[in-house]
Amino acid sequence: MPDAVRVTVLGKSPSWQDAGGACSGYLVEEDGVRVLLDCGNGVFAKLRRHVAYADVDAVVLSHLHADHFLDLVPFAYALRYAPSQQVPEPARPALHAPPGARDTFRRVVGAWGSEDLIEGAFDLREYEPAEVLHAGPLTLRFQPVPHFVPANAIEVTSARGGRLTFGADSGPSDELCAFARDTDLLLIEATLPEPEAGGPRGHLTPAEAGEHGRRAGARRLVITHLTDELDAAWAEGEAERAFGGPVEVAREGAVYEL
Ligand SMILES: [Zn+2]
Ligand SMILES: [Zn+2]
What we know:
By secondary structure, the chain is α/β, with parallel strands linked by helices. It has helices spanning 43-50, 66-69, 72-81, 101-110, 117-121, 174-179, 206-216, 232-243, and strands at residues 6-11, 25-30, 33-37, 58-60, 94-97, 123-126, 133-135, 138-145, 151-157, 163-166, 185-189, 221-224, 248-249, 255-257. The protein has eight helices and 14 strands. The strands form two sheets. Strands 6-5-4-3-2-1-14 form a seven-stranded mixed sheet. It has a seven-stranded mixed sheet with strand order 7-8-9-10-11-12-13. Helix 6 links the parallel strand 10 and strand 11. The longest helix is centred in the C-terminal third of the chain and has 12 residues, at 232-243. It is globular and about 55 Å long. The two termini are 14 Å apart. The mean pLDDT is 97. One zinc ion (ZN) binds at residues 63, 65, 147, 169.
């Protein structure tokens, strides 16, 4: 019997890291294929605790905020300069990033004159949210969600049928509920102690995250992207009341099987 799909939380912090933690990063594995969803600051060191970075097949980014891509920088340095990579055919993982990523990366690493650092280390492709991607037995689909920059929820479906929906960073979204309908595991942000006071919405409270899980009919709900400075028990209780069932607060190292 082959192994189930494994989802490992590498980092669950919001845009600043928990003590000893990492920002957004989730490792999805099936049949030896490894896909990293997001690569926020702190994620590269956490990734190395679980797998050899050269064995990552693809990195897929939900959006171009620092806490979702900044550790592409150390990852790229490792791919280019690590002793193990000085071989005729070094590892060059696929990097699927939203439109505009190449330009964003060039500006970030161009600050110290290394414009092509990331595109030289990875096989960079900008995806359109309507595209369907494949990585070994895994199929990935996207759903644009409301945030302060273009952002996409990501669905990962196993050839065996297990399904993960990662909500990215998102304000309240009917489309996200529909996209996640009947999913096996909804990994959804719950960043805010209370809704943004004014202006456009770009994040959710734990209660809103629970409500999205209930509306989607998600089989299992995990809330993430919340700081260790928020009371996790409070967040869990808020989410559970709205969801109508048990909810887990993401913690680094947690593994979910689909
Ligand atoms: Zn974020
Ligand atoms: Zn964001």
